[in-house]
């Protein structure tokens, strides 16, 4: 088998700790023997972020904008303890936050479904992807405790000094108030990313809010989605044979539970936060969640949803064997290679992504899996360490030259 040639480089964002160890193994065992890997490499490991004053993160995001497809390893988001541990110049921001801001992207999270690990919800056969709007609402709120009787109002002062006032409540005693906002620009980017991603993976898109109660705020989300759909995506959806619909969040919850899965559910910021945790838990393991950041212009960044698995890394450093699940990181690579193949017209590269994912699934179906999965598996599991799992997958790939 000759190595598969690539046309455009993939933006490679390397990361930290145990996932950084997996990263190297995955490239060496699964990719380099089969693909003439063309990547533009960025080391987002915390030390290098610190050396470059985090410029490397910004550069990598700009490269993703330029080339269109990136694959990212999990990275440490520093806190006070990490600042000490790595002797950092400052508490650098979350790389994911920086990249998301530059790509103006939306995160789509979907579980990798395996036989033998049934979702808690019996009817779910296919993955459910949650698209979470990642700007505004209660995450950028302004809140206040009301000490006692008085009048609370919403006040908007235009640039021309004109004031618009609206009563919130006439307090007779103590209470609380909160002000939240969102932006047409951000909601529109979110909508574009959702429509693009639905077309890209050929799945129906649902969008839900509480517009019956929130007749201006939530209703505005619905209106923007509807207008963008009508203007830009309706024809493409009809051609692709997929559906977009809006429904009240109560109805969406009921329908999701009764569905077979295989849908993208777009949610406002808070709904997406809560629902993605619920869906992830109901599907099984955090180590089986993939995550794709999609920009409104159709640029993609693939990664695992979990972190750097720090506890395993410290065992690894002591020379102990770990049983760290590499599946979501492997799928980040296969997802990125498949997308690169699709954009560059390289069917062999797309097929290779399928082959790699099938080797992973065949391995798990044969009972060989890491401890986290073995704990959930309904059949006879053969739990193995990280290395043995990686070799078991490699042995299921065709022989390389
Ligand atoms: P984590 O790395 O996801 O790990 C939490 C726990 O979940 C692990 O200790 C492990 O449990 C289990 N786990 C997660 N992934 C696993 C895998 N692939 N295989 C087996 N078990 C797995 O989250 P964290 O410990 O909260 O965060 C660690 C670091 O990751 C932090 O510095 C954080 O900033 C960073 N982080 C990065 C991202 C990202 O880059 N997208 C996301 C989240 C967190 P057991 O130890 O019980 O086996
Ligand atoms: Mg949450």
Summarize the structure.
The chain is an alpha/beta fold. It has helices at 17-31, 46-51, 55-67, 80-85, 95-103, 184-201, 217-240, 249-258, 269-283, 310-317, 327-344, 347-365, 371-374, 386-394, and strands at 4-5, 10-14, 35-36, 39-43, 69-72, 106-111, 128-132, 142-146, 150-157, 163-171, 175-179, 204-209, 244-248, 263-267, 289-294, 300-304, 368-369, 382-383. Helices cover 43% and strands 22% of the residues.
- Biggest sheet features: 10 strands, mixed
Total E-strand runs: 18
Radius of gyration: 23 Å
Parts with pLDDT < 50 across at least 5 consecutive residues: none
Helical segment count? 14
> What would you call the shape?
globular
Strand content range:
15-25%
Ions and ligands: NADP nicotinamide-adenine-dinucleotide phosphate, magnesium ion
Distance, first to last CA = 6 Å
Quote the average pLDDT.
Answer: 95
Strands of the biggest beta sheet: in what spatial order? 4-2-5-16-15-6-7-14-12-13
Helix percentage range: 40-55%
Structural category: alpha/beta
Structural write-up:
- The protein is of the alpha/beta class and about 400 residues long.
- It is about 45% helix and about 20% strand.
- The protein has 14 helices and 18 strands.
- It has helices spanning about 15-30, 45-50, 55-65, 80-85, 95-105, 185-200, 215-240, 250-260, 270-285, 310-315, 325-345, 345-365, 370-375, 385-395, and strands at about 5, 10-15, 35, 40-45, 70, 105-110, 130, 140-145, 150-155, 165-170, 175-180, 205-210, 245-250, 265, 290-295, 300-305, 370, 380-385.
- The strands form five sheets. It has a ten-stranded mixed sheet with strand order 4-2-5-16-15-6-7-14-12-13, with helices on both faces.
- A hairpin with a 5-residue loop joins strand 9 (about 150-155) and strand 10.
- Helix 11 runs antiparallel to helix 12 (about 345-365).
- The longest helix is centred in the middle third of the chain and has 24 residues, at about 215-240.
- The mean pLDDT is about 95.
- It binds NADP nicotinamide-adenine-dinucleotide phosphate and magnesium ion (MG).
């Amino acid at each position: 088998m000759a190595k598969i040639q690539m046309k455009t480089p993939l933006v490679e964002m390397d990361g930290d700790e145990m996932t950084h160890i997996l990263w190297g193994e995955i490239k060496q065992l699964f990719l380099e023997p089969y693909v003439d890997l063309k990547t533009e490499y960025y080391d987002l490991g915390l030390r290098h972020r610190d050396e470059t004053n985090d410029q490397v993160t910004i550069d990598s995001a700009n490269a993703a904008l330029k080339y269109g497809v990136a694959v990212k390893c999990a990275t440490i988001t520093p806190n006070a303890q990490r600042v000490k541990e790595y002797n950092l110049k400052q508490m650098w921001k979350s790389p994911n936050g920086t990249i998301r801001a530059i790509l103006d992207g939306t995160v789509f999270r979907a579980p990798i479904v395996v036989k033998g690990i049934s979702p808690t919800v019996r009817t779910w056969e296919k993955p459910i992807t949650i698209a979470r709007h990642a700007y505004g609402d209660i995450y950028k709120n302004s809140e206040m405790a009301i000490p006692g009787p008085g009048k609370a109002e919403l006040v908007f002062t235009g640039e021309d000094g004109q004031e618009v006032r609206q009563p919130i409540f006439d307090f007779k005693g103590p209470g609380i108030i909160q002000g939240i906002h969102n932006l047409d620009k951000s909601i529109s980017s979110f909508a574009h990313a959702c429509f693009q991603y639905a077309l890209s993976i050929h799945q129906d898109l649902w969008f839900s809010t509480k517009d019956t109660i929130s007749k201006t705020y939530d209703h505005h989300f619905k209106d923007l989605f509807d207008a963008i759909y009508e203007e830009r995506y309706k024809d493409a959806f009809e051609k692709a044979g997929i559906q977009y619909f809006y429904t009240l969040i109560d109805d969406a919850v009921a329908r999701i539970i009764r569905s077979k899965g295989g849908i993208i559910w777009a949610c406002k910021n808070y709904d997406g936060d809560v629902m993605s945790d619920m869906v992830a838990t109901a599907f099984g393991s955090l180590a089986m969640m993939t995550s794709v950041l999609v920009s409104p212009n159709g640029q993609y960044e693939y990664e695992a949803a979990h972190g750097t698995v720090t506890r395993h890394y410290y065992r690894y450093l002591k020379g102990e064997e770990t049983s760290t699940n590499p599946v979501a990181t492997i799928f980040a690579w296969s997802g990125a290679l498949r997308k690169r193949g699709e954009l560059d017209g390289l069917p062999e590269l797309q097929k290779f992504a399928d082959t790699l994912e099938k080797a992973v699934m065949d391995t798990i179906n044969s009972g060989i899996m890491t401890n986290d999965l073995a704990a959930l598996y309904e059949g006879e599991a053969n739990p193995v360490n990280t290395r043995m799992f990686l070799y078991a997958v490699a042995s299921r790939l065709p022989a390389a030259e």
